[in-house]
Queue: 4 jobs
Job 1
Amino acid sequence: MQVWIGVWLVWIAVSLVYERWVGGPLYGRPAPYTPRHDSDAPAAAPAGPVLLEGVGGTLIDRLPERLGRHVIALEAEDHYVRVHTDRGSALLHGRLSDAIGQLAAIDGIRVHRSYWIRKDAVRRVSASGKGMRVHLSNGIEVPVSQAYKELARQAGISPP
């Protein structure tokens, strides 16, 4: 019994020393958050697509200048929306339904749970099993799901 009391006291002593001089708890609760102020550190260049989180304004305003403003399609990716333009694509934080609402002035249609397309960007429509695939002016192929197939046909998007 005395051995266990000694082990317990040593464990408490090591934990207190570790927490005091190393700066974090050895076990148990996480260390409190302290914000970093690295104003001298250079900003790293983003790898891959540009993520524009927390930026206000409309979808068009949030697009990088290099992509222009001619939106061809929207694609949902988890909590982000990939905006396809005639010059490339960018990944913006937000919901697809909100992005579609911001593009209400553009004549477009939702053709899938994860896709919205601009009608005048449709170059070709092909049959794909029970469904359809829409080929857009920027080379993207977008599936038309069964749920949106009739709506697409009513909008004039159907295979020949």
Note: The chain has two domains: 1-26, 53-154.
Job 2
Amino acid sequence: MRRRDLISTVGPAAVWAFAARAQVSPPVIGILFGGSAALMRAGLPAFLSGLSELGFTEGQNVTIEYRVADGQYERLPALISDLVSRKVDVIVPLASRASLAAKAATSTIPTVFAVAVDPVALGLVASLNRPGGNLTGATFLSIELTAKQLELVHALSPSAGTVGFLINPEAPDIAAQTGRAQAAAKALALTLQVVNVRADSELEGVFNELAERHVGALVVGGDEFLASEAARIAALAARYEIPTVYPLRVFIAASGLASYGASLPEALHQAGIYVGRVLKGIKPADLPVVQSSKFELVINLKTAKALGLTVPQSLLLRADEVIE
């Protein structure tokens, strides 16, 4: 049908309404992360999978803007301001620092976070069941697992009387993490050495310090900076022959010894689903914060053998994945 015939059939007003709808741009999601681009990319498939369950596919009917600080956390306020100025439809801050920056930047743009800390204690939401405001999301509460991680490293290296706890002292929940670790060490009759690291340039010196203190085993705390340095931390633990337990599977992909923690992909998948629901018109205040219910124990037998460790059969039977 020719354009003149179409106009005469349905009328000019209807034609212009049709044209306007045809020119509507797809919704825009703004993802904000303070850690490394590599770590963000590792979790992206799970997020996109959740988003696709609600009918949204990047590059087809939704656009995603990525803003990554790459460990330069002081850049987060400027990065989130840029997303706000672009009037994105939904903001997705990954991890605690990005989430705090997003909350400070806007009280109107819907925001769906994925964090490893208690979002109520962090001040992101009023409660898990009734978030209130413009934020909701998924949490995998890694702090609750610190005691289990101490128990795991003790089982893997029972002769180690002194265990290190590697932390970033600038992590928002570091006081709670350290308190849990100290209580768990006391219950296991272990001496806990808390060691701080703020930048990648300090990592070599930190492991040298652990060796000088005769630390026999190590637990790595939960933090996006530490997770972004997974490959280097795992390599240093191997070089200094320190049995180490990690909070996320990403460290085992870098040949770490063992990890016990919540499933990061599950949390990111749920965040993708929530973003899809928000794009369909549901308010964040009406979406309760989802708590991850899947926990993973992963053991790398290759690394255990290189360290001269014998992994107890009881741990192997409990493991969700054993790398041989």
Note: Residues 9-140+264-293 form a domain with the Rossmann fold fold (CATH 3.40.50.2300).
Job 3
Amino acid sequence: MKTPKAKRLPSGSWFVRVRVNGQDIGITKRTEKEAIAEAMAVKAGIQTSEKIAKSSLTVGDAVRKYIEIREKTLSPSTVRGYREKAANHFQSIARKKLSVLTDLDCQAAINAERCGPKTIKNAWTLFASAIEEQTGRRPKVHLPAMIKNEHQFLQPDEVHKFLEAAEGDSQEIAILLGLHSLRRSEILSLQWTDIDLKKDMIHVRGAVVYDSDGNLIRKKANKNEASRRDVPIMIPRLRALLVDVEDKSGPVVNCYPNTIQRHVDKICEAAGLPKIGTHGLRHSFASIAYHIGMPEKISMEIGGWSDFQTMRNIYTHIAKLDISKYSGMMKNFYEYKNGNENDNE
């Protein structure tokens, strides 16, 4: 009997496809050796019923299994997001058997979606990974082009206008924490024990997220290792507000997650600025850091970014906006020179 070949999946598992009685059967195992051994057993007729039953799995079954396997290792908010995607997207193929699923079926399901390109891409990543884990093959499809939002944060000259409009708002502390680079989940997790007013330092520890049942929970772990950080208090107004709070126990900010975003967008609207949401405050921190010449590495450490990509995207975007400013300076330089030469004639 010819030994089948195993293929390593992006997840790290190994996949083997065998054909029994005219049916393709996929086998996924933790190691290459285990996958090949089981494939040989199936081909020899030692194990068939379970694997043939597996070949009748639907796309929806595959996605549910994908989530179940990872439920204990992923964050509750990620599991909740996966389940929402499974329930609300690509329903035209959810009941289709993997054994007869084609790339055209997948493309038709993608084309039928009525949401933004980013949402489609995120949902399809889940479905495609689940399909690949069960079949060893990732469907070849075309996703809608991503339309990059060119203004997801405040420019340096807009920040002061925003701060003036925010002064006195009931969520001003939360807003100023966002401008210190804190994520929404980090703002809500912040306890008064994390605030050191003697050293003017904010200790970012943990996050408040939704669990798989839609309840808010506080977890000790941050988004990534770099997210656990100490952030200096850099806005004098924030320090003054923190000092003035009489009851310094429990959470620093006590509200629902969407409350902060509503207040930010309302302030932006009142100030005649683009609505940036809570996460836009974090990106505005990077915008200001670029403006004052803060090195990327330091901005990255304060902001808790695990790689340079986000920082570079923001820095590059602002640098493009600076082109007109510097080109104008260059133009003034030459006009001044020419003007002096004319005066000397």
Note: The chain has a mean pLDDT of 84.
Job 4
Amino acid sequence: MAGSDRLEGQIEDLMAQLKLRAPSLIVTVLGDSIAPHGGNFWIGSMIDLMAPFGLNERLVRTSIFRLTKENWLSATQVGRRSFYNLTTRGLRRFEEAFHRVYEMDDSPWDGEWTLAMLDAGATAPEDRERIRRELTWAGFGTASNFVFAHATMTPADVREKLADMDLLDHALILRSRIEWPTDDEATHAFVRRCWDLDQIAEQYAEFLETFRPLWHLLRDSGEATPETCFMIRTLLIHEYRRLTLRDPQLPTELISTDWEGTAARTLSRNIYRHVSPGAERHIQGCVETMDGPLPSVSARFQARFGGLDLTAAL
């Protein structure tokens, strides 16, 4: 069997294994492929992009409609054509989520924790749940029912997040460090109380088992069409994004040297760098905006995973 045929077979198996859902997959494409080009697209382009994944026109239109109702997208009608643009809220949300996917701060940890303490007496249960959900999504661990901890997020970032929800007056934001006990075991015990790292490690191990065969085949075959590259990149980030949003991405001082998340990041970086030139050719050829051809990618896009070489895609 030719390398390209084996690769296509591997992708089909991967799509069946991942059990893709249209709304979530479209969010991945918007964040990974559309936002870096400005965030504007014709609905027909999105339908073409999603067709290889088995998503029909009705599913795409329904998903885009829902995202518009939720204020991720805004719509503009030009003649008989519908164009969509990521809203300010949508762009900010993608920036927050995908920053954790492509970037990682490897600078030494200063030992300080950012704590968010909720006012249990003055905060309604539904507001507490909103805060808990948002902080958990941002990587906070649950130190107690009303105390949430983060190792690297700054108090200013927490303040901005709570202000966006109009709940800034319902929490105290502190910087703190563990003074006693002073041994590393006490710190690691605190980490284990805040996050279920064993479960996250299991999910990373499954990710590695799923995508390593694809990487070996991709690296050794040397045959992949632009459409295949786009599909691989989308499936990779779709699954890796799901894991990184559950991973608190703790400093290296707080995780084991054989942490599965490190291997998963290296594998994702290798695949992403390998397929991005072809994927960008496919996106540029498929997507049309209200102003015509798709704009070039942003400089931030080219810095993903430590730097991309897109010369082959130009």
Note: The longest helix spans residues 260-286.
